[in-house]
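Support reply, case 0932

Customer input (verbatim):
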Amino acid sequence: MASPQLITHVTYTLHTESLKLRTLTCELLAAICLLSVTQGHMLVLAAFSDYCIAHEEAFRFEELIASLRFSADPNGDDEDADEIELDEEGAWDARTSAMTLVNALTTCPESLEERIQLREELGRRGLNEIIVVRILAACFISDACLNQHNARHCATSVHQKQSSRKLTSIQ
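Our regenerated output:
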């Protein structure tokens, strides 16, 4: 933690198209928060404040939260956002590590007030809506997969019963 500028520059690497680099950066920043709860956490928050200024975000954490969205539109205004998209390789890993970072940022402070402030700040950026959409999408995917599995299973059972009847009638 000798160089706060190093953590700031590491945070700047989130501004990239490389999903692998985003994944590694989020994991590193989460580790810094968790391993050095007071100083590391404060340095990561300060780095995100610097990131906000350097990359002309209106608010801190905008790009981090935008990376969690389903839609390609960073503002979440995409009309097709409710459709499940097939993500490029590594997108889910990047989203998972971004959520790990969010969890580290919001659970590290000892002060309840600071935790609440951070959670509210992230909520204002759209985190709560993203979580709800993810949960609903996971349920939708699970239900769709379950229905598809059940339909295949029923079709197979019906086909097996029909085959069995044919064999019985032939004998």
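We compared this against your earlier run and they match. Two observations from our side: The helical segments are 4-12, 19-35, 39-54, 62-66, 91-107, 112-124, 127-170. The two ends are 82 Å apart (CA to CA). Please reopen the case if you see a mismatch on your end.
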